[in-house]
Amino acid sequence: MNQPIVFMFSGQGSQYYQMGKELFAHNAAFRQKMLDLDDFAVSRFGYSVLKEMYHTGNRLSDPFDRLLFSHPAIFMAEYALAYALEQRGIRPDYVIGASLGEYAAAAVSGVLSAEDALDCVLEQARIVTETCRNGSMLAILGDPALYQDDPLLGEHSELASVNYHSHFVISGEREHIKRIMDDLREKQIPHQLLPVSYGFHSALVDQAEQPYKRFLAQKSIRTPFIPYISSATGEAETDIQADFFWDIVRKPIRFREALQFADSRQKGLYIDAGPSGTLAAFAKQILPAGSAERIRAIMTPFHKEQTHLQQIEDSILSPPGRRL
Q: Any idea where the Malonyl-CoA:ACP transacylase (MAT) domain is (predicted)?
């Protein structure tokens, strides 16, 4: 039996200015899909996401945290990369979405059209911006048990995700997260503030629930034609209702369980279609030792997208690899 191919899509925190720029410059399929999606964003909200993403004044090191741009930019880059892969004959047997990456997974699997998925992302950004107060998300490199053991974390933040045995993310009020960072610094526990200006996967986004659910109720949602494994539930989803796309904003991220669910069915080749290789890095920590060769990333802040894409194409399509 051929090794199944799994596309993985990450969410907020994985974005940066200039992401995918090498593909945009040199890969015609990626560029055309990005332009098509940007045209839709302009028609919907009146602004170009691409002009913000690729503006020469925005450096890779600058925080890309304005939600009205970063939200659609993540979806656009992920969906365009999946499209470019498929145009080269590399098609997924499964998709895994994580947080905002659920929208790209939904579009690739046929649950939503690409335009409807982008519309949902744009509307989510608008509603959250208009109804929710600012917050922060913090990645902590430590035992997730720390969240339960440290009262400062447990009382002043919410657990957004446990990514692997020594990496978890919390959401909370900015002042609370700042206090937690000071405490972690004193204890010499590594941590990183994510480029996110709202506390997703926490009560800080609850004000967006009702208006967003009303918007989602208008969308046409279909049964996936490519198996869709969600990090909201940690398993495959077949009967997806509109409220599911609120759950992926509010519930904790269960990528670890989703990946383990996929790998328990059949050991696959995992392609991180996100902007920074975040899920590939997580997968290398989650899957059994010796699995690294089954995990690939394409887009990274180091701009070797064309090389990575060619390497994946050669390994999958060239003998003795998989035949499609």
A: 8-306
Full pLDDT tens readout for the chain, 324 residues: 478 999 999 999 889 999 999 999 999 999 999 999 999 999 999 999 999 999 999 988 898 989 999 999 999 999 999 999 999 999 999 999 999 999 999 999 999 999 999 999 999 999 999 999 999 999 999 999 999 999 999 999 999 999 999 999 999 999 999 999 999 999 999 999 999 999 999 999 999 999 999 999 999 999 999 999 999 999 999 999 999 999 999 999 999 999 999 999 889 999 999 999 999 999 999 999 999 999 999 998 887 899 999 999 888 876 444 433
Beta strands at 269-272 and 295-297: parallel, antiparallel or unpaired = parallel
For residues 6 and 95, the answer to whether their CB atoms sit within 8 Å is yes
**Rounded to an integer, what distance in angstroms lies between the CA atom of residue 307 and that of residue 305?**
5
For tokens 């969240």, the residue is: 147
**Active site residues per annotation:** 99
Q: In terms of residues, how long is the chain?
A: 324
| Residues whose CB falls within 8 Å of the CB of residue 304, separated by 6 or more in sequence, listed in order | 22
Helix (H) or strand (E) segment spanning residue 272: strand 269-272
Q: Positive or negative, the Cα torsion across 67, 172, 106, 10? A: positive
What does R_g of the chain's alpha carbons equal in angstroms?
19
Structure tokens of 187?
């204890």
Hey, which residues does 236 pair with through a beta bridge? 229
Q: Give the β-pairing of 228-230 and 191-193.
A: unpaired
- Preceding peptide of 252 cis, ω within 30°: no
**For residues 87 and 175, is the Cβ–Cβ distance under 8 A?**
no
Q: Give the C-alpha separation, 293 to 180, whole Å.
A: 37
Entry pTM: 0.94
Residue 280: closest CA among 297, 303, 267, 263: 297
